[in-house]
Task: inverse folding
């Protein structure tokens, strides 16, 4: 993917975190990190760490916020999400 040759994964991660922080429901509750070992064929493997409940509507809000934001950079980016819920 050419976009990842130009913009580093850390830049994309930073942008995704900024977008999460713009959502008042998610701000302060979600941290995004890069999965150290790419386990999939996705362009970006990330870990979502949150103290919010492990519910599908929460996951949907987080993933939608990230994809909507990163669509500006690359509308075809593929992301694999790994989840860590600290509220369990």
Result:
């Amino acid at each position: 993917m050419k976009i990842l040759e130009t913009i580093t994964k850390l830049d994309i991660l930073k942008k995704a975190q900024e977008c999460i922080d713009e959502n008042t429901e998610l701000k302060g509750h979600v941290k995004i990190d890069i999965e150290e070992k790419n386990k999939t064929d996705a362009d970006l493997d990330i870990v979502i760490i949150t103290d919010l409940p492990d519910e599908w509507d929460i996951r949907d809000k987080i993933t939608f916020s990230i994809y909507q934001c990163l669509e500006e950079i690359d509308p075809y980016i593929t992301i694999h999400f790994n989840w860590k819920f600290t509220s369990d």
